[in-house]
Amino acid sequence: MKKNEVPQQNAKAFMGHSKVLYALDEQGRYVPTPCNGWEAEEIVLDQAIAEFQHSAAAAWQRARQGVGSALEYHMYRQRMDLVLLAQSTGFFRWRVRRHLRPGVFEKLSNRCRQHYAEALGLAPAQLDVLPDQL
User: Fold this and answer.
1) CATH 1.10.260.40 correct for 41-128
2) Would the pLDDT of 4 be above 90?
């Protein structure tokens, strides 16, 4: 893509900010070029956010029923999936999946809770807390 072809459609997800893309200049070199989004990117981003919101609502419902742990809700609320949470904590995926079960989650050590809290940007005590409503 050439530098003058980089889309500048002011995507609402960027909230007035821009990101850097690399595009070809007049001499054929790749140079950093600001971009504030385009329609296709915005549509896909909105769909991804809606999917995480739907997953968080379902996880909240499971946690309320005692079928799932609050960890699953917090994971989706922070727009993470199982793989990303595992990578962020350094735990294996199977171990994170196991911690999504309420009985196992309740027995987690403080060290494990600290890893999850750091990855999710929460205090360890907040991991057990669910909002009253969505």
Assistant:
1) yes
2) no
